[in-house]
Amino acid sequence: MKLFEQQELHIYNSISKEKEKFEPIHQGAVGMYVCGPTVYSNVHMGNCRTFLSFDLVFRYLKHLGYKVRYVRNITDAGHLENDGESGDDPILKKARIEKLEPMEVVQKYTVDFHETMSKFNALPPSIEPTATGHIIEQIEIVSKIIAEGYAYEVNGSVYFDVVKFDKKHKYGKLSGRNLDDMISNTRELAAQSDKRNPQDFALWKKAEPQHIMHWPSPWSEGFPGWHLECTAMSTKYLGESFDIHGGGMDLKFPHHECEIAQAEACNHKSPVNTWMHANMLTLNGKKMSKSTGNNILPDELFTGNNDVLSKAFSPTVAKFFMYQAQYRSILDFSNDALVASEKGFNRLMDSYRALTSLSVAKKSSFDVSAWRQSCYDAMNDDFNSPILIAQLFEASKLINAVKEGNETLSEADLEILKTTMHDFIFDVLGLTDDVSETNTNGDKLSSAVELLISLRNQARANKDFATSDQIRDQLQEVGIQLKDGKEGTTYSLN
Ligand SMILES: [Zn+2]
């Protein structure tokens, strides 16, 4: 039997504001779409937290035995602030500053994003489509929305008619905003605007002469509105209705609200069953942001090269720190918290490694199966990683108690403990045992030294003291001290 049939997963749905029992549309398979990065600068730790939150979701669903199709897009065009009326395309802006082709900007920061994600041991999504690779699909959606009567063309640009949509479908379902309130809180439309209502948003924009990235369309030589790509790519790869749509909290409005409107206008049904939003990472209590300089880049963290850090931290420690908060709560980033996480992580790894040398008893004094289920219960409760980590520390306590002879474990229970810890630490949380990597090297080192010790013993047995002294002295030169005792020769590293 697949694990998903035994475990009852509940996910907080941002649209109903309730934890709901998760039941995928197709039994045993999950379709998940997550809004990916806009590739015009290095991702900061705040962005990383969002992607790592969904890596945890992806990993746990896979661990439960679901076949998951995880789609995460790359926004490489069309992400305009304020629908391009007063904003600028950040990719074009960066291309001007760095004197690069827009596609060079895109390539540079896509590579950086992938490298960063792989340092964090995040799994790549199943499909990673780009906005520029789906212009035809986006144009089709615009045509469909026009045909349905929810969009209009003015001077080569196409806008979504929010007021008309709201009458039949209700706009604001996800964010809980009410269109009447939005209207009464908005100032008059700018005189030059082509929009009928300030709440309308661009589906297609006619390119101004300075715009380098543009494509032909039935309305003008132009480019798609930002919200459109996610509707186009999620529909193409996951269907008109799919299981999970995720993203950062800041995307709830307007981005996700607009995605819902576009999809409902086309397909007359709700595109997403479960909306998930990951909360932000703050630094010194304030939102991480590029413009204010209040942010930390992953590489600064890995090298310790930032004034707020006292030292370098490994990606796995940073990840462990982030998973000590549930994805829906705000997490404040600080040096002290990272230092504490590093200690905790090392403690956990020490006890995990101690599992191999535990002695077994006939009977267990501890209910390992109940503990195992409590790990699942934590994750089944809306991916509550801090509770899972607390359970792993419970196991760590148990391991120490067994070592000291205060608790006992049967052979079968020790196996369950080992497998469960391995599954959750490495497969679900996706942590890596950096220390054990040095340990593997340590094992190789110790085998090499043991070999030299036995060669030295042979030399001594043959009364070849020149060779035996040479081995001892040269090992000492590289910092390895040999000690001859009653039990034979041991060594220590200086
Ligand atoms: Zn999106």
TrEMBL record:
Swiss-Prot/TrEMBL cofactor(s): Zn(2+)
Organism: Ulvibacter litoralis
Residue ranges of domain Cysteinyl-tRNA synthetase class Ia DALR in the record: 374-435
Top EC class, one word: ligase
Residues involved in Zn(2+) binding: 35, 230, 255, 259
MF-aspect GO terms: ATP binding; cysteine-tRNA ligase activity; zinc ion binding
Alphabetical list of PANTHER family matching this protein: CYSTEINE--TRNA LIGASE, CYTOPLASMIC, CYSTEINYL-TRNA SYNTHETASE
GO biological process: cysteinyl-tRNA aminoacylation
Quaternary state and interactors: Monomer.
Cofactor note: Binds 1 zinc ion per subunit.
Protein name: Cysteine--tRNA ligase
